[in-house]
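queue> holo job accepted (zinc ion)
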Amino acid sequence: MSFDLDARTFSFKDMKVSISSVDGRLKNIALDIGDYQKNALNGQGAKSAKIVYNKKHNCFFIHIAVDYAAECIVPSGDVIGIDRGLYNIVYCSDKFRYSGKQVMHKRRQYVKLRASLQAKGTKGAKKLLKRLGGKEKRWMTDINHQISRKIVDNSNKGDILVLEDLKHIRKRIKLAKKQRAVVNSWAFGQIQKFLEYKAAEKGILMTYIDPRYTSQKCSKCNCIHKSNRNSHLFICKECGYTANADYNASCNIRMVYMTHEDGLMSKSPEATPIKVVASPRL
Ligand SMILES: [Zn+2]
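queue> job finished
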């Protein structure tokens, strides 16, 4: 259960909220929040929020939306290309990678367990099925936090993270659907979301590119050939360059940015205000 609040039904002052309810105005409700949320909300004139009921904890959460203009950061550091995929969830051009092997294995276990519970069809099985879905999502969310944290920890203020546009990844995942138990496409969107706010906190920029040919192109001699990619290995038909296919793709993603720098600059996050959502517990 959740409902939206706007400037008429919600106000925020001194880390306290007032909300309109069917029983009249509930005034000055203190927020149970940590330092991160306090910093994000400090001095903000929040005008909208969402109330969400959490059944498990039997309490309400409030998501308060604040707009703040990020500090203007000049791209001055390293450019890191990030390839996202199924075999490696991420492979960065600085050679950091997170293998998708364990994730795929666990996803398969969940798929099997779900199938057997569905076959059972009892009330208890249905209940368990619901719990399982939540558990799987929390597990994947935790992994996505770890991945994004590691990438940001490996980078410095002024660095630029270059990723391929999410819609292209979604297309690829659809094609790979024949393989059962692949990583859900929402997981890639989530990594992106986590990366965006963690990078913004540290002054790291992010930009997105059209990934055309990044998997077929040789990052050493630029030769594009379909058969350059041989499953997980990239072997260039032209110059013989051999590398992990996802690593080669990450170098190409980086190069797209390097060669089209001017055109892509306007897309970098410093040009637009960043929306931060703090979710304190009421
Ligand atoms: Zn080559």
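queue> The radius of gyration is 22 Å.
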